[in-house]
Write a structure and sequence with these properties.
Strand content: 5-15%
Low-confidence stretches: none
CATH topology of the largest domain: Arc Repressor Mutant, subunit A
Helix content: 55-70%
Radius of gyration: 17 Å
Shape: globular
Mean pLDDT: 91
Number of domains: 2
CATH superfamily of the largest domain: Winged helix-like DNA-binding domain superfamily/Winged helix DNA-binding domain
Distance between the termini: 22 Å
Number of strands: 3
Order of helices and strands: HEHHEEHH
CATH architecture of the largest domain: Orthogonal Bundle
Length: about 110
């Protein structure tokens, strides 16, 4: 279910990271869903092992996946309230309102920086 576009300007590790995070967020891959080993993922996507490992490290750092030793790497349980993201969103909304931005303008800025 993962695809790496080798012609894209987006680095391969970021493509992998983004797609796995999207599957986890959408529930396509629920908590506990087992992911392939780094080597298997690299072979499947025709990317370097270090590239696959970099994507997994970023995902683990973000709390999207967890490594369970001999049990492999799985989608981590999702937190219903990601307080850091909620706090950042609230701060952005306050700043946008103070600057007189409309909701559409604020959303446009988020889309441009995403």
């Amino acid at each position: 279910m993962l695809i790496v576009d080798h012609e894209s300007t987006e680095p391969p590790y970021e493509q992998v990271r983004r797609q796995i995070a999207a599957h986890a967020a959408a529930g396509t891959w629920p908590p506990g869903h087992r992911l392939p080993t780094v080597r298997a993922l690299a072979a499947e996507l025709e990317i370097a092992v270090n590239t696959a490992a970099k994507a997994y490290r970023a995902l683990e750092s973000d709390g999207v996946i967890e490594t369970r030793g001999r049990n492999g790497t799985c989608i981590a349980p999702q937190h219903l309230a990601d307080t850091e993201a909620i706090d950042a969103a609230a701060a952005y909304a306050r700043t946008a309102r103070r600057q007189g931005l409309s909701r559409d303008e604020a959303h446009r800025l988020i889309d441009e920086t995403w």
